[in-house]
Amino acid sequence: MPAIPLDRAPKPSATDPLQIRNFSIIAHIDHGKSTLADRMLGITGVVEARNMRAQYLDRMDIERERGITIKSQAVRLPWQSEGSDYILNMIDTPGHVDFTYEVSRSLAACEGAVLLVDCAQGIEAQTLANLYLAMENNLTIIPVLNKIDLPAAQPEKFAEELARLIGCQPEDCLRVSGKTGAGVAELLDQIVRQVPPPQGDPKAPARALIFDSVYDLYRGVVTYVRVVDGNLKAHDQIQMLSTGIKHEALEVGVISPEPVSSGGLGVGEVGYLITGVKDVRQSRVGDTITNAQRPATTQLPGYKDPVPMVFSGLYPLDSSEYPTLREALEKLQLNDAALVFEPETSAALGFGFRCGFLGLLHMEIVRERLEREAGLDLISTAPNVVYNLTLDDGTIVKVTNPSEFPMTKIDEVREPIVRATILAPSEFIGAIMELCQTRRGVLQGMDYLSEDRVEIRYTLPLGEIVFDFFDSLKSKTRGYASLDYEPIGEAPGELVKVDILLQGEAVDAFSAIVHRDKAYAYGVMMTGKLRELIPRQQFEVPIQAAVGSRIIARESIRAMRKDVLAKCYGGDISRKRKLLEKQKEGKKRMKMVGRVEVPQEAFIAALSTNEEVDKAKAKK
Amino acid sequence: MEKEQLKPLSFYIHIPYCIRRCGYCDFNTYTPSELKDGEASVAKVSQGYVDAAIIEINQAFAFFDDKNQVRPIETIFFGGGTPTLLPAADLARILDELREKFGFSENIEITTEANPDSVSAVDLKNLRTAGMNRVSFGMQSAKTHVLATLDRTHNPARVSEVVNEAIEAGFEHVSLDLIYGVPGESIDDWKESVNTALSLPIDHLSAYALIVEEGTKLGAQVRRGDVVMPPDDETADKYLLVDELATKAGMDWYEVSNWSLTGGEARHNIAYWHSNDWWGIGAGAHSHVQGVRWWNVKHPTTYISKLISGESPMFENETLTKEQIRFEEILLRIRLSSGLPLAFFTEPELAILNSYLAQGHLEEKAWQSGQLKLSISGRLLADQIVRALDK
Q: B99 — contact with chain A (CB < 8 Å)?
């Protein structure tokens, strides 16, 4: 079980598939995947100790700061086991619920998966979801308990849990410590022994699965592929099967762990491809690459277009930064095929964009990157989901923005439904069920993972989840619960639009689509909040919440009666003039809603609960 | 400019000393302990201050003399700090210098501020002899608990004594200052304070809503939540109350925070509001002469050393643009019952004013006769109206 000197390791495009093992690591965010991966880079000798830096493979600042992996990578690791040379391709998977599809494509590129669980915490909901994905893909699962060096480690307890989940014996679970390196070499040997080698036809027309696609400032789009049949060579004319688009393969190579041009990739191999395209949407995850001269006819299974599930309006705080925001979104889209946006105008917030995201984390990441990389200050409206409406006249309308919710007669509103899996200590069952009930959840089942840990399954409207669900779940379970969800379709719901009116005029930014039973609560909450946030004006300002023409809640801001400084003598005059001039400037930054002056801060504060929730979520 | 076309000339004299600092006060004033000699009396720390002030008067004289603009003084105001902490003889030296250099107009108004508990009947006689003819006492409130919140030390009973002593000393005009909207002050507390003030033989009343300034003790208390400011609406009600009671007592409002019997108006303050020429003598004092504003170095020690070495004590100045002069004219004169002629305003401004007229914030009768005059509700919104005029 030693490393192979790199110059003697099997070469890319000349490696027998029997010598190849492709695997992923499935793990929850803080269960030590990156540390284990670092350790593997070290003991296989592809990264010298002195060049090692923590979490080598996580590239973006946000990833390193939050300890989450957004974009996957694939590293080629040479390894000798029982006297034979092997190539292990470690395909990293994103670790979050919003990226299930990308995870599924990464898994589709593998024959095996390491199920890595922190043996002080046990398995989490998202890990479970990814495990099920791996099992659906018929991957060989190697259960591994990590962090055995921790004093709080309970390897026996969690070995039982894992054994029950995947149907093995508790003693089959490997025990490792990414931190100390204990058990890592044995794990690599087990990968060689247990994971089957890839199978494919070297003579067939080329077919390679795209499992990731990343925009690089200098190289353009870098596409990560797993060759299934045939081979890919530099300077081949390649073709995307879903779109028919053709490009020249300018460079083909492997990651080890820096990119190395290899000239080609053969059956079962994993590597990268550069064509010079600038937009990841031309090289979509899940698509099949073939050779344009001798194209394959059948696509590899499982390709899906990314479907945005959550929408939010993004507006620059300073309206003159609208062009900057557009440029920043366009730039981000080069690297994010799932991000969609279109211009939107809000009477209250000015010019902005309605953006569609895979989920809440995706939304938060995009927002944070826009703010960080483009230096923008943004207001985001409360997130909402997509509604499909059937009007009385039979017309079907898709609504991604509450302000588009029609006033005409609506026959039916359908909303997206998800299947949610919650893992938590069993003492919180009551609290979780109560929460899910209030969010219109329907219990689908419950299983004990171990004596005191339970898996609860619910179907829930996605719209209920995007509205501070995760925050409530965490607070009701003292942070112990984990959540995963996947879309399963749509269902009719008793949904209404609640408008918020200032002086009789609807403020689009505050409109929300909510369940009929919750309209009143939303109305009371928002009108109350605005009463606190909007300064008194020279006239009384009624604030109302309305469903259609029916007013369901009202508040009012009384007219300002006193706005004068008592003293204005000789020494006060300059100061007073400057103060009034400053206030006049401040007034220019106010948003006018009809005749009502609303400070920008009021919008931000009124929309902020959700924002804070998302922040909390992302920090998790 | 011909002398006849010049605006009337006034002087302000700043005496930057107090026995102790009140919790709400952010004026340029110093207590003996804040100055060099911790134990020293105000008389000692103020040594040299009056000499310096006299040098500055001579600088002012040279300034006007140069332009051939020396003219008799219309009003003088001693403010602080606590001017009466200085011996009357020192204040008299200042007046003598001004009289000698500029001459006094026949009906000159010379006011001093005074605290009820730091001035005696004898002091008042001396001040009157020195030439002062108007005195303004800082009464603030008739209620002990309100005075305590403000850090004021006087016994409320002293107010009526001191007003009578001033009358006996021969002061022609006596004014009282009140502060309302103080944390813990009820409407009844305020009513009692106003009635107490109006029951005395005064011809002028100032009533100021408390302003919480940053950097003061009170500011810190409010920020920490130790004391809670009363709601604005209650403070507005107190304004309505003082206006009602003062009017009943025969006084008229002539500026947002000032009421007087006929002839009792503070002419010195009117000079500020009409953007007359006025020169502030002393540490941190502000001046305005023909569209230029400037202010002196703040610390008395720096002020004294500048003057001793023959320099100007000016710290900063600004020359007002035409727009600024106009803006100041609006923001100052809108506060006066004399108001502004409607002809002063542009068409768009008149349209905005019209909406305030419609809401009852301007007096209909004055408007009909071509004059802008705030109604009582409008007085409470003076700043808002000034801001609204800028579109």
A: no
